[in-house]
């Protein structure tokens, strides 16, 4: 194309070869830049892919931890609920024995204290279960932003 244009315009062969060399140099330097750009894009793609894979592994680990926390909290809650029922039964026995004159008031008070302690522990295990559920929600992609919660609370309280 340049040769045809140079021939028509009457340019000498020296000018033609200079133009051709310049064009080839420009093409080769441009090809190097294009190759470097392609290599950079491939490296960035590999980096993003590695970060994505790491995010997936982290997400699965978070979900697994949350599931384990829920299972543990549920087991602890069941055991604490059984303990609370036993404390309730013990209090009922202590009261009936006190009314029959077979026990002192101190025994009834001690049974009440045990029941109240079991109630408190049951509430603590319920809280642990709820916190584990929140962790699961967050691990599955649900967000929790304290600022949004405060805003909603202030809107609903007005």
Textual characterization of the structure:
The chain is mainly α. 91% of the residues lie in helices and 0% in strands. The chain is built from 4 helices and no strands. Helix 1 packs antiparallel against helix 2 and helix 2 runs antiparallel to helix 3. The protein is rod-shaped and about 125 Å long. It starts with a helix and ends with a helix. The N terminus is likely disordered.
Topology diagram in text:
Layout: H1 2-9, H2 13-100, H3 105-139, H4 146-157
Helix pairs in contact: 1-2, 2-3
Question: What's the short story on this structure?
Answer:
With 158 residues, this protein is mainly alpha-helical.
**Secondary structure: helix percent:** over 70%
C-alpha-based Rg, rounded: 39 Å
Number of extended strands: 0
- Work out the helix count: 4
Would you tell me the structural class of the helices and strands? mainly alpha
- What is the subunit organization of this protein? single chain
Uncertain runs are: 1-6
Strand proportion:
under 5%
């Amino acid at each position: 194309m340049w040769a045809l244009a140079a021939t028509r315009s009457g340019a000498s062969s020296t000018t033609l070869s200079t133009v051709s060399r310049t064009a080839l140099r420009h093409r080769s330097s441009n090809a190097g830049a294009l190759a470097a750009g392609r290599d950079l894009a491939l490296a960035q793609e590999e980096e993003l892919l590695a970060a994505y894979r790491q995010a997936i592994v982290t997400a699965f680990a978070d979900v697994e931890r949350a599931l384990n926390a829920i299972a543990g909290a549920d087991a602890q809650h069941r055991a604490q609920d059984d303990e609370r029922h036993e404390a309730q039964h013990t209090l009922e026995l202590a009261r009936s024995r006190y009314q029959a004159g077979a026990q002192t008031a101190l025994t009834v008070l001690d049974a009440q204290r045990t029941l109240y302690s079991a109630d408190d522990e049951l509430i603590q295990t319920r809280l642990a279960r709820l916190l584990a559920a929140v962790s699961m929600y967050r691990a599955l992609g649900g967000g929790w932003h304290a600022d949004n919660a405060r805003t909603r609370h202030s809107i609903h309280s007005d």
